[in-house]
Amino acid sequence: MDTRDPAFERLLSQARRAAGARAAILIAGQSGTGRGYLARRIHAWSPRADGPFVEVACANLPVELAESELFGHERGAFTDARETREGRFEVARGGTLYFRGIEELAPEIQAKVLRVLQESRFERLGGRTTIEADARILASTAERPERLVERGALRPDLYFRLNVVRLDLPPLHERAADIPALAEEFLAEACRHHGVGPRALTPDALARLKSFPWPGNLVELRNAIESAAVLSEGPWIDTADLPPSLGADAPGALAGAARDGRTLKEVEDAYIREVLARAAGNVSAAARILGIHRKTLHEKLRPRPAGKGS
Predict the structure, then answer these.
(1) pTM of the prediction?
(2) Which residues share a beta bridge with 237?
């Protein structure tokens, strides 16, 4: 996670210092900015590096299974509980427990997580034995936590308990100095993965990458480089080999849409179609690039009844 950006270097220095303590860390940043990667680096820098790193993808945790997944259950706790099972808090014992998208947890589950943070102990579902919690807690959000609290997605008391050390990851367009090195790293990775190459970026291609706003951040940059690595015909990747959305006319796309009188919905639909195409139809990947929840993207893709929404 090397950087040439002074502000990002300061953030990494803070992360390294915080890694040595047990204090909870809250990582905020847009989708695709590397929240999960930073969480893993913090674990690797910490005294708990030899312990497990356990990630909880909160958006993928069904409400009805969340308590059992996090805290475990005893045999007979519910109909299908045929044996005792450890939850994530126990599995992470001696290591790090990372909640990705903590605001996606249901309010009642957030309350139970808060209790563990306050008391450092819990009980399995259906159990009476108190178990000591021994996991360093990291959590992340894709929006500013204060906004999540304001709209009721994140409990204020849980936010204050997690917000001991706060790390705000900048969007990629604020780290333009790092784009060439990141692009070269992603290119080498793509060439190895797909068995092509070697490939190199021309100065014009690098200039185009540095000037693009990257709404999908690191994920979008990685996808663009991978596409170019696969589709380029020779060892040099030039601007023509980059995805169409990065083309020379891309910066003028919004001006053109305004000139033509296109509605906001039309512009949004066009952008969603482009991102979906670049993600090879993978809705989950497209949602990450767009910075929205997968369910929200499904809703936007649902056909509207004729005559409505215009």
Answers:
(1) 0.77
(2) 201
